[in-house]
Amino acid sequence: MLVTPSGTSACPDDRPHRLAAQLADMIPGAATIRVSLSDPKETWPHPHVIVKDEAGQTIQLGRIAARVAARWILRVWPEVDWTRPHTFDLADATLTRSDLLAARRGR
Question: What's the CA gap between 11 and 4, in Å, rounded?
């Protein structure tokens, strides 16, 4: 769950866990979903996802499934700065800015 600087949950209800369960059903084998508004195939901002399994392998999605997954995640966290990509971890239903996640892995 995304936490604000005050330490309170930015999403106080169970929506992240319900969303994680729905996305796991929709995308079997998915472990993380990276969401951004910079689809490399589009000129204007469009929702874009990269889905990875537990081994870190990319899972290919159709255009519609990718857009649905991205929009569901965007709607659960409307207050997030979506100019930067974020990664939604389905196992613990947490959303983390992707560059911060990469920095943690690099340690």
Answer: 9
C-alpha R_g of the chain: 13
Distance (Å, whole) CA 99 – CA 22: 25
18-39 pLDDT, tens per residue?
Answer: 999 999 999 999 999 999 987 6
Mapped onto helix, strand or coil, the DSSP state of residue 105 is helix
Which residues, at least 6 apart from 66, have a Cβ–Cβ distance to it below 8 Å?
A: 47, 48, 49, 51
Question: Whole-model pTM?
Answer: 0.79
Pairing of strands 86-89, 32-36: antiparallel
| Helix, strand, or coil (residue 64) | helix
3 state SS of 31: coil
CB atoms near residue 86 (< 10 Å): 23
How far is C-alpha 33 from the geometric centre of its chain's CA atoms?
Answer: 4
Element (H, E) at 24: helix 15-26
